[in-house]
Amino acid sequence: MSIAAERLHSVNSKPVNSDGRFVLYWMVAARRPRFNFALQHAVERAQQLKKPLVVLEPLRLRYRWASDRFHRFLIEGMRANAAAFEGRAVTYYPFVESDVESKPGDDSLLAAFAETACEVISDDAPYFFYPAMVRAVAKRLPVRLSLVDSNTVIPMRLAERTFTVAHSYRRHMHRNVIQWLDQMPQADPLEGVSLPKLRQLPPSVTEHWERADLKRLLSPGGLHDLPIDHSVAVVETLEGGAASAQRRWTGFLEQGLGRYDQDRNQPDCDGSSQMSPFLHFGHISAHQLVRDVLASESWRPEKLGDAIGKNQGFWGTSLAVEGFLDQVLTWRELGFNMAVRHPDRFDNLRSLPDWAKKSIQETARDRRPYLYGLSELEEAGTHDPVWNAAQRQLRQTGRMHNYLRMLWGKLIYQWTESAEQSFEFMEHLNNKYALDGRDPNSYSGILWVLGRYDRAWGPKRPVFGSLRYMTSDSARRKLKLERYLRRFEG
Ligand SMILES: Cc1cc2nc3c(=O)[nH]c(=O)nc-3n(C[C@H](O)[C@H](O)[C@H](O)COP(=O)(O)OP(=O)(O)OC[C@H]3O[C@@H](n4cnc5c(N)ncnc54)[C@H](O)[C@@H]3O)c2cc1C
Q: Photolyase/cryptochrome alpha/beta domain spans which residues (predicted)?
């Protein structure tokens, strides 16, 4: 089945080489074998051209915050992909960069593959280093490079406007989602597919780049020689990869979803899906999550309510399902809307609304009740046990409970010299430790703390001005926190 035109675009004006030896899928963001539009499109192109299909999944060294934590999660993902592609109509080539000083990097590897490819298909990832990486390689490739959007249920380039608040995006989603629910990616794009076999990878590749030895890299000490940050430890309790994502997801569907509306905001229950690291690394797709939660209540389109932008009453499902869909389809997709439309500002303070910029300016000289530097924050060394527990959770487990994440950010804003400094610290801590960091959602969340997607609140308060105000005392009153505090007590 062909993918929708709204999900596909070419980034160079090079031709397709129909004499090439294979179609190449350069898998950089949607790192999964299922529910993946880019893989589906690559399979279709290979069938049309009657050529073998090669999937190249690289892992580079040169990205900010590269550490054992992220490398391990990604390499576990590669191991799961290697298993999933075994015996299928595809040649899978995982590559882990080891030493950029003395060996050519992964973009040279891509160029070497492309020399004999018919065309290259990749993921359309409008965040982190991906856009710059794509721009750099597009010119070097001798053949067409096309990008495919597998990020969001409603194609991220569909909307011709930028949404500055959730309820206006929600209205857009309500108006369009049904059409796109009918155009979901195939669960298994390789099912029943037969393609010519590639007898041999190009010698220009195999002579210079070794296929990753995933077993060795995942053995104790396997990452030791890589020049990445070894101080950010692997999260032993969370295995990366599509198979692990699927196991967790099934567990959530069976045991967590029914209580999502009640347990999500309670740190002691921690009743959210924990899908964000898998979504971030592309190990699971938002499409599948939406399909499965709707199926869990045997949902039918006749149940739909009015498309008026309310976060309850549209789907005609339980509150739990409605709440979950709102996070995935409104809050998550809103961040992609900003990332794709404003590459220059989605990840910085320039994306704040005018009222927030004004409020920040008005309170810039207000005396802060406490001032902390980055290392005191990083070490969870503040006076506030709730904040410290949240920071310890982030460092130890690579995640932070959603409600406490909001409080965590608000207090960093209150305890630093300026909005600029608070942003810098939040970005660094979030992206260094969180497995779901470095994502459009990271910037939706961090910049929400400073007013993005929010409205002005009154009365005006010192430091916060019109920004929404949160305190640990009110969190203690509202939330079940005892077990959480004991667990992350330090
Ligand atoms: C300061 C701050 C920083 C944040 N940084 C990140 C980040 O780096 N990466 C990240 O994915 N999310 C971030 N968030 C948003 C939110 O906290 C997480 O998405 C959520 O806690 C992930 O847990 P979950 O997968 O169990 O969520 P669930 O509640 O099970 O929700 C399912 C999915 O919906 C999406 N979602 C849920 N809540 C939000 C939200 N508030 N905004 C956008 N999407 C949402 C996520 O993709 C999530 O995986 C941040 C929020 C704040 C306030």
A: 21-156
